[in-house]
Amino acid sequence: ESGERKAKVEKMFGFMDAFLKNDSFSLQKDILDHVEYTVARSRFIFDDFEAYQGLSYSVRDRLIERWHDTHRYFKKKDPKRLYFLSLEFLMGRSLSNSVINLGIRDQYADALNQLGFEFEVVAEQEGDAALGNGGLARLCACQMDSLATLDYPAWGYGLRYQYGLFRQIILDGFQLEEPDYWLNFGNPWEIERVHVSYPVKFYGTVEEEGIQGQTIKVWIPGETVEAVAYDNPIPGYGTRNAINLRLWAAKPSDQYDMESYNTGDYINAIMDRQKAETISNVLYPDDRSYQGKELRLKQHYFFVSASLQDIIRRFRDDHNNFDEFPEKVALQINDTHPSLAIAEVMRVLVDEEHLDWSRAWDITSRVFSFTTHTVHAEALEKIPVDLLGNLLPRHLQIIYEINYKFMEELKSMIGQDYDRLSRMSIVEEGAVKSIRMANLSIVCCQIVNGVSKVHLDLLKERVFKDFYELWPQKFQYKTNGVTQRRWVVVSNPNLSSLISKWLGTESWIRNVDLLAGLRQHVSDPDLQREWKMVKKVNKARLAEYIETLSGIKVSLDAMFDVQIKRIHEYKRQLLNILGIIHRYDCIKNMETSDRRKVVPRVCIIGGKAAPGYDIAKKIIKLCHVVAEKINNDADIGDLLKLVFIPDYNVSVAELVIPGSDLSQHLSTAGHEASGTGSMKFLMNGCLLLATADGAIVEIMEEVGADNMFLFGAKVNEVPALHEKGASLKAPLQFLRVVRMVRDGYFGFKDYFKSLCDTLEDGKDFYLLGYDFASYLEAQAAADRTFVDPEKWIHMSILSTAGSGKFSSDKTIEEYAKHTWGIEPCKCPF
Ligand code: AZC
């Protein structure tokens, strides 16, 4: 740091702790400057989108300033840093979140007003950054917000996909996928770092060389691609700290290969090089299972290699002894996707730094920790050996060596139990010999985390049983959480103000334990009235959105009943739809006088199906045909409506969640690792109708089972139910609604046949039939409660009051203490 330059700047400008000012005049001037000079539109004539751009660039300036100060401070203090490696981050929009975290939302709103614009309208111009699939990816985004807010010295690393998660288009009730070329209109939130770039190598051969009497392996790669950094500052709330999310994009390498140029085929040589960019082009949209695809493996290694070169370079700036690496660096691998990093660190230490194997292994196993997000064994990555050996020949050798040593150690501990040895081996023998990335991660990492208490139990008892018996101390869990900044303050400003008013402080935004203070006011009629008012306003906003989308007018007096998440058989959107058919059928068969007792419902479903997931796509279509029938049945009127919200994403969630009364989390027990949607609804005072699965079990402990509507088989009952198989008979009501679909009551009889087949006795793996009766009971209980508004509001307030445990701030504090060993490092000015 140049003290001289700093003194000069101070003298010229009169140094203040923030270089940029936040008074209304300065903000207006900054917005106009950016409109004129960055966006290159006239400062006199510009539209909402250009206002969004100018505004965002001016916010970005403020982020950059904090970012610089934070990183200068980190550099000075040199704390142990956390590097959070994830192939997916689902950030959504940045504008509102940034200005709220910077504490200048109102100032900006005022400045915009002076210029003739409205903040909300301008903020709506922003598209979502959807560089991820679902829960896992959104969790990372929430955790970045908490890491910044809690002043942890952390970096996020990811990939800058050109195409984010596909856009869902609904045509005649069928899902179509459209590419999400999200960078089309520029991205004011990133900073391209042309000078931060690293070569990433692929293919080639491994040769042996003798150096000082030792034989070492040398990888002679066959292809080089350049990784260029794009930085996305992440501001903390109520702190000057802003951390970095560094995303890599692939570019052709400068290290050109003479041969292709010498052939004289200049154009084709360039076209070939251009192919390098495809590596980071597209996010894989399937969140179910891993297919051994070369491009995907290339993405993983591209990401791992670039990130580690960057991390090691930063470490080397201040250290030259790798024994200090674990004291200065924590590497978190988010699911197994980045787990090649283990082999890469070993390769660098052994082949490039010439450390002996055991020292290198000791260091490597002390820096990594691993979190798994699934209970489904088929979602654990397996990389075919042929593929890996071709793309990364040296890494395959290293993984074999790690496995060899592990197997030897294991044999000495458990003897010749070959079944168990083969189950635990990193290498899976079989028709396609493969590397089990989860086993590699468990063998290497000192700590393996699950994402809820139930998830850990399942890991211990089922998924990683053998490993748990060997190393019980490795296995921990950190219950997932979501950030109250985005999910309440940004998306539900009315509720946020109401909470602050009743708690007498805004401190809950940083110290979420304070939310529990709402309990003492729960019976206050004033709070109840205001709480109800806020819900009504949010429902009106959602109703307006629904009307614009679908033309359907919904009544604000109806219960808004919502299920939004990726479409999966285990998440049982089908159970929801069958329940709706049942409700419809009951109303149709009711005496008119009884209809008066029916609680009107607006059922809302949203979510994307993986493009190749046939059954999930049929569920979407079923939802549409059922909606078509019900919504056009004049006889039913406002008693029941069904709406499918297309293209569900983060910003849609921000609109839908605050306007919901009831939210459904229906996974067959033992299938949802945690679930985080439930937490967002809970914070917003929506009541949950749920199975006792994943984090719901802990939510029950916090808010009390009597403040929720629970149903269905329990985690420990499911295996026995599966054993009963075909002898498990579904109830008549269930058979009746399935029959309606099967017989073509809603049309598309042939198309739905395979879907109905999954529900036959003995084939109903997800136990829809078994759980149906208790599901309907839970629904009936929700109806009974809804007609007692006082009781409903009471439960709603208690839901928010009990949601503190599910803030990502809590999760991150746990990780910091018990997994990463990092301390806050707060930028002082
Ligand atoms: C999800 C889990 O399904 C969900 O239960 C959990 O809450 C979430 O991770 C965060 O831990 N898993 C995924 O989203 N998985 C993929 C591959 O996208």
Automatic annotation (TrEMBL):
Catalytic reaction(s) noted: [(1->4)-alpha-D-glucosyl](n) + phosphate = [(1->4)-alpha-D-glucosyl](n-1) + alpha-D-glucose 1-phosphate
Cofactor: pyridoxal 5'-phosphate
EC number, UniProt record: 2.4.1.1
Keyword Hydrolase carried by entry: no
Domain of life: Eukaryota
Keywords: Carbohydrate metabolism, Glycosyltransferase, Pyridoxal phosphate, Transferase
Catalytic class of the enzyme: transferase
Keyword Transferase applies: yes
Free-text function comment from the UniProt entry: Allosteric enzyme that catalyzes the rate-limiting step in glycogen catabolism, the phosphorolytic cleavage of glycogen to produce glucose-1-phosphate, and plays a central role in maintaining cellular and organismal glucose homeostasis.
Family, as annotated: Belongs to the glycogen phosphorylase family.
Identification of the protein by name: Alpha-1,4 glucan phosphorylase
Organism field: Coffea arabica (Arabian coffee)
Lineage: Eukaryota, Viridiplantae, Streptophyta, Embryophyta, Tracheophyta
